[in-house]
Amino acid sequence: MEFIINHTAFKNAVLEVGKIVSEKATLPILSGIKIIAEKDNLTIIGSNSDLVIEKIIPTFSNGSKVVEVLQPGSIVISAKYLSEIVKKLPNEIYFTVNENNRVTIQSDNISSRLNGFSALEYPNLPLMDDTQYIPMASKVLIEMLKQTVFAVSKNETRPVLTGVYFHFSKGQLTCVATNSIRLALSKRVINVRVNCSCVVPSHTINELSKLMNNTSETIDIFISDHYIMFESTMTKLYSRILVGTYPHILRLIPQEFQTTITMERKQLLNGIDRATLFSSVTNNNKVYLELQEGSKIKIRSHGTELGQIEETQYLKGIQGERELSIAVDGGYLIEALKALKEDEISLSFSGPMKPILLKPIGLDDQLHLISPVRT
Amino acid sequence: MEFIINHTAFKNAVLEVGKIVSEKATLPILSGIKIIAEKDNLTIIGSNSDLVIEKIIPTFSNGSKVVEVLQPGSIVISAKYLSEIVKKLPNEIYFTVNENNRVTIQSDNISSRLNGFSALEYPNLPLMDDTQYIPMASKVLIEMLKQTVFAVSKNETRPVLTGVYFHFSKGQLTCVATNSIRLALSKRVINVRVNCSCVVPSHTINELSKLMNNTSETIDIFISDHYIMFESTMTKLYSRILVGTYPHILRLIPQEFQTTITMERKQLLNGIDRATLFSSVTNNNKVYLELQEGSKIKIRSHGTELGQIEETQYLKGIQGERELSIAVDGGYLIEALKALKEDEISLSFSGPMKPILLKPIGLDDQLHLISPVRT
Q1: Smallest Cα–Cα separation from B168: which of B143, B135, B146, B137?
Q2: Band of residue B319 on the pLDDT scale cut at 50, 70, 90
Q3: Which residue of B has its CA nearest to A78?
C-alpha cells in the first residue's frame, strides 16, 4: 500500500473521523482508523459503539490532484497517533505500508513509523438496503435536530428516551425528543411518501450536526432494521438504532387551553435566566410565573438564605383566562426558549398542573411542552 | 448606603475582582466582595489566600457620570451571586443597603435582594510603605513575567521555587523562575536605583498579567516585609511574598560553551513538538538532539511500541565543536522556545551532562537554561 496525498485533505478527513474513535475501545483495533487506498479514491473509516463514519477522498477535487494511489491496499492505524501526526506535518504526505503492517508517514525531512493492524480484522460496515432512501436538505434536517435533541432523557432507565424519534408518515418527517417531563417536537414536509419510524441515539445526532453542519448538500437517509445511515457526497454516517417502543406522542400534546399569552422570546429568556440564579441552588430550578392584571407576568424564584430575585414583564397579548400561577423547571424553559428562534412566541396554559406549550407565533413546525413542578 | 451606578462599569469591576475570590473560603465573609461607597468614588475589594485586588470606580469617567453616591457606607456581599446578578442585569443599577446589611439591587423592573455581611468584619488591607516605589511600563513588566513565570516549580517541596524572583539591583530588574531542572531569566533597565529582592507567588503573577495586560499605563511597585503591591490608576493588587532564600542564580548560568548553534525558532519549536508526540507517553518527554555533519541537527524521540518519529533540520550557523548528542525534556524546550519571540535564537552546549542555554540572537535581556535528561 502506497499513496501520496495533499496534507490538508488528509488531515481534515483523519481528524473528522478520528475524533469519534475512543482511545479505550474494547478491542485495540477499534481505537484505530481504517484507511483503504483504491485506484480512484481513499476511504477513511472510524467508529465507536454508537456509530461509524466513512469519509471518501476522491483523486481529484476542484480540478487538482488530491491523492495519488501508487499501490492499493488497506490498513488500520491508531486514531490518536495518526491524528496527532497529520496535525503536525507541514506538507504533502507520502504514506507506505509494508507486508508486516508497518506504516511509514513522510513529509519533507520528517519521517514517522507506526505499527498498524491488519485491515482484515476490522469489523465490516453495516449492510444497508440502498433501494429506498429519503433525501433531505441538510440545513432543514440539522435545524430539526437542533430543535429537539437537547430534550432527550439523560437517564438510561428508559434507553429509548435517550434518542431522537424519527417518524416518517404522510409526506412529513416529525422529530421528537422527551424525558417525560418536557418534550420537543419539530416537523417538516418531505418529498417522499414513506412510513417508518426509528429512534436515533443523541450521540449520533450530535455528531451528525457537527459533521454536516456546513454543507448545503442533500443528505440521503437510509433505514434498515438495526441501522440508520446518513449520506452526503463524501461522507457516510452509520448509526445503530435504539431498541424499544417510543411513547405515543399525539396523546401527550394538549389541544385546548385556558390561557394563551404572547411574549418577546429574548426578553422572557433573559428573565427566566435571571430567576434561575437562586433557584438552581435549591430545587429543580423552580421558577414561578404569575399573570398580573391581565397584562403582565411576574417571574420569580423562591429564593434562598442568600437572596432572591424577581421581575415583571409586559405581555404582547393574552387570550382566555387572565389568572394563572404556575411553577416550572427554569432550566427546561430556558432550553425551549433557546431552541425557538422567532422574536415572538406563545405560551399556552391549561392550569397549574398541566403542561405548558410553547410555539412560535403563526407556525406549526415546532413545539415544546414542559410539565409544571409541584409547588 | 445607597448609590446609582452605570451597569457596565460596575459589572466589569465586580467580575474582575470577583473572579479571584474563592467560593469555599475559610470564613464565609472571605467569599464576599467588599464595596465601599464614598463621596467621590466607589471601591471594590476581593481577596484570596495569596492576594487582594482593589478596584476604584471614580464618580466621573471621560466626562460622564459613572456613579452617584447618595449615601456613603460599606458592605460585604457574596462574590458569586453579585457577579451573576450584575452579569444578568440590563441597565443602570440602583444599589441600597439597610441597617441589617440587607442589600437590594434594582435595574428596570428587576429587583434582587441579598444578605450581606458587616464590612467591619472584613480584614484590613496590608499596610504598605508608600514613600518608595518603582515605576515600570506595564507592557515591559508583563512581558518579563510572561518570559519567566511558566518555569516555576509546580511542586511544593521548596515553596520558594513556586514563585518568580524579583531582584532590583544596579538600575536593573531581573526576574527569574526555576524548578531546578530548567530556569528562565528576564532582565531590563529601570529608572530607579533600589536594591531589594522578593519572591512573588506564580498565582499572583498570573492574575497581574490578566489584570494589567491591556493597560499602557505605568505600574508602580511597592515592597514591604511581607507584601508586594502593584498599582495602576484604578487598580491595586496586593500579594503576599514567599518566605525562603532563593538560589544564587549567577552561579547556575554557565559562561563558557563547547558549541553554539543558531536556528530558526519556529521551525525548531515545530520539530520538538512533533518529537514529543511519542516521547510524552513514556519518560520525561525525552527528546534526542544530535548534530550531524556540522550543518544539521537530528531530532528524534526514543519511540514506543506504537511508533516513532524523527526529522533533520538545517542549522543557520555553528560555532565550536561540531559533534554533540544530548537528550532533554521536550516539554521544557517547547516552553522556552515559546517564551522567546525572536525569529532566530542560539542554543549553547557544554557537553551531554551540562545545561543548554537558549537566547535570542544579539540580545542579553532573556535567557533559558535546561538541564539534560540522563540517557
Answers
A1: B135
A2: very high
A3: B306
